[in-house]
Amino acid sequence: MTSPVSTGYDFSAPSRIVFGWGRRREAGGLARSLGRRAFVVCGSRTLDSTGKLAEILQSLRDAGVEPMRAAMISSEPHVEHVDGCVSFLRQQKAGFGDLLLAIGGGSAIDLAKAAAALVAQQSKSSLRDYLDSAGDGPKISNMPLPVLAMPTTGGTGSEGTKNAVISSRDPPFKKSLRSEMMVPRVVLIDPELSVSVPPNVTAWTGMDAITQLIESCISRRSTPATQDIAVRGLELALPPRTAWGTGLPPGDLALVPVVSAFHDGSSRPAREAMAQAALLSGIALANSGLGMAHGVAAALGIHCNVPHGLACAVMLPAALRANLAVKNAGAQFLRAAIAMLGDRKMRLEPHSIKTIGAAAIELIEALLEELKIPRRLSEIGVTREQIPAIVRDSRGNSMSGNPRELSDDELTRILEDML
Ligand SMILES: [Zn+2]
Fold this sequence. Notes:
The chain is α/β, with parallel strands linked by helices and about 425 residues long. It is about 45% helix and about 10% strand. The protein has 16 helices and eight strands. Strand 6 (about 165-170) and strand 7 form a beta hairpin. Helix 7 (about 200-220) packs antiparallel against helix 9 (about 255-265). Mean pLDDT is about 90; it is low at about 240-250. Zinc ion binds near residues 156, 212, 294 and 312.
């Protein structure tokens, strides 16, 4: 494989990132830097019921920005959600001087990014036409309305990416609307907003971030910049000095941020670490692509309705095993594994990609166990009869970044072994 450095690369990221505990109070000023009217897409009823959303909207009014509620979404966005939101924006004559404020997890941010892009285009087509895989549908050519993204789940990293993942029931698919111009203009991360995220969602979104960091580090489209970002994200998500896992002396899994937040949602250091890791995972994946775990996760979402983060977590050990033996990804795999293992690496003999990689996989498996994430596909509702369709629909953009080419037969075998 040609080195990615010699072929050059692009890098996109949000123009401005504001990070800090309690900094949601700055939302008004940041919104004002983007427009005078903010269409709000919210993904959390809890934020609404606890008064946090009202507090944020008041900070907008205080800064001279008129907030208007455009959508509330509690599931992964479908074509109809986006078309509905765009139609509302058109009724309100949204345009220059307006922005979208997305507050929530990946679902809310993806919905806002897609709506902000579509409302700015000349074509009044449904999102379905833009997602047409034949490629002859309308394209994103005009600059979208600016998006201010306030992530609340510490997981998906959608605040740092240039795509919006959209599902459809009929025909069933999960596709991305993608444009360099869709990266949120400003990202405001207040990890305190994630304290009310329930334990299961904390575990799934946290594992999504970890999967994104690993897959973007070992992706065949990774670059020096994305590898460094992903490695730093892994060090934040799996701090090197925690003594746990892999047959080492009895450790304390509770020191790992995602586990700590799973058991105690109000843990500030844990929420801060995961919010940063998630942001870095989004920036890394937007510029490097992903791999097998995400490829299969999309198909598990389409056919078995498995939440994205849970699907990624279940697939991660198998994806790592499948890539462990890939020669051309060895150096990248080693970097990711060393970042995950930290000091623990020193106790492994011999220091080979095989032992270090195997220890990293063991670490992930211990983490899944602690987070009560199932290991078998049957436990998340997958049947043997669904496997051919899952294999077929795993071949999206994510799978194309996987270091190793997997034939349909091989992927079928891997999935059958996981039933
Ligand atoms: Zn993901």
